[in-house]
Amino acid sequence: MAAVAAxxxxxxxxxxxxxxxxxxxxxAGGVRLLALxxxxxxxxxxxxxxxxxxxxxxxxxxxxxxxxAALAGDLVVTAGYCERAGSGRFNSAVCVTGxxxxxxxxxxxxxxGEGASYGAGDGFAAFDTPVGRxxxxxxxxxxxxxxxxxxxxxxxxxxVCMSAWPGSRTNQTANLAHDRWKRRFxxxxxxxxLENQVxxxxxxxxxxxxxxxxxxxxxxxxxxxxxxxxxxVGAGMAVAELDVARTLxxxxxxxxxxxxxxxxxxxxxxxxxxx
Length: 275
Hints:
This protein is an alpha/beta fold. It contains five helices and 13 strands. It is globular and about 50 Å long. The N and C termini lie far apart (51 Å).
């Protein structure tokens, strides 16, 4: 399996050319599951300060997604795009093989000014694929433990998080490797894998786009929270090989975080009664 860090922009033809090269490289390396970043078809927003130039809106059943599926062929490929649904737009992800669409997700949690450009999704659901049961989320979704937990409880063995995660906008460092938002990105990846004991793929955009410096840092994390492969802040492909079923069995044999939950004790206070 592999997670990609790479730049993408408004030039769809250039984006598809890059995706084709990445799929060719992955296939040559024996990869069966390839995670591409958020908004890799058409690029992300150029700014998070409010309404911004939006990527081209694509239909789930349109020619671009069919083209992506044709490129995927025998691979399972996840990718982010701007989805057109009626008069609305969503920051969405799709999972495809050459046979077509296997699963979809609309980003639920919207940071800063993103809500001015996209509608919000309303849930998380896992789905079956030739490489195992997968759950998807997008970028800021991973800052909320409930997102990954909902997918794990729905049977996700592998969670793919696709991002266009930037570096900090204040107190910027010249070296993105030392950026505080980059550290948060990495912490979320490891924590979500460990607390749910799942295999975690984190794909992210790299380079710059508009006012954003993207932190790259694509990685594969095992159910113990250990990073098996990482691109660092530059472009690249993080590749790891593991038997998912056996890895999950080993991780959950003694300490089963999902098995040992006590939902009856997790009471949420009714804040409407406060004061």
